[in-house]
Automatic annotation (TrEMBL):
Its main location: nucleus. Signal peptide: none annotated. This is B box-type domain-containing protein. It comes from Brassica campestris (Field mustard). Pfam families: zf-B_box. It is found in: Nucleus. Keywords: Metal-binding, Nucleus, Repeat, Transcription, Transcription regulation, Zinc, Zinc-finger. The keyword Repeat applies. The keyword Metal-binding applies.
Length: 154
């Protein structure tokens, strides 16, 4: 399965925009990020060819130092492995947060991407379902923004 664009929900997503926290196909990426000068400065990286040495990889929202690996839907944050591990092992509530690898792979509510560090993570596993990265309301907002910019051009 492929990750679908969060804007049109039809095409395969090619990039992930860290500012919009959205995966976008080529056409929607062009429309959204060429709509104005500010949007054109958004940091985007390839979902098809992710590279660990890529300088355009996003930085963790918490520590602002390490490269981000995950997106937490409830926290609306991209996180490095260390920050994710400390945040999402704090209590039973945060362990259930929906988290995604930045390539769009959804993790189970109790999974860990790293080697188990305690008994609570020993039965963890990664669920390989390629679900959209973002909730529907943000997708609707992005669609409305794209529609509005199309109307303004007329």
């Amino acid at each position: 399965m492929k990750i679908r664009c969060d804007v049109c929900d039809k095409e395969e997503a090619l990039v992930f925009c860290t500012a919009d926290e959205a995966s976008l196909c080529g056409g929607c990426d062009h429309r959204v990020h060429h709509a104005n000068k500010l949007a054109s400065k958004h940091l985007r990286f390839s979902l098809l060819n992710p590279s660990p040495s890529n300088n355009s990889s996003p930085i963790c929202d918490i520590c602002q130092e390490k490269k981000a690996l995950l997106f937490c839907q409830e926290d609306r944050a991209i996180l490095c492995k260390d920050c994710d591990s400390s945040i999402h092992s704090a209590n039973e509530h945060v362990k259930k947060h929906d988290r995604f690898l930045l390539t769009g792979v959804k993790l189970s509510a109790t999974s860990s991407v790293y080697k188990p560090t305690s008994e609570s993570f020993s039965s963890s596993q990664i669920v390989m379902s390629l679900d959209p990265i973002l909730p529907r309301n943000l997708s609707q907002l992005l669609r409305a923004t794209a529609l509005r910019s199309n109307l303004l051009r007329r």
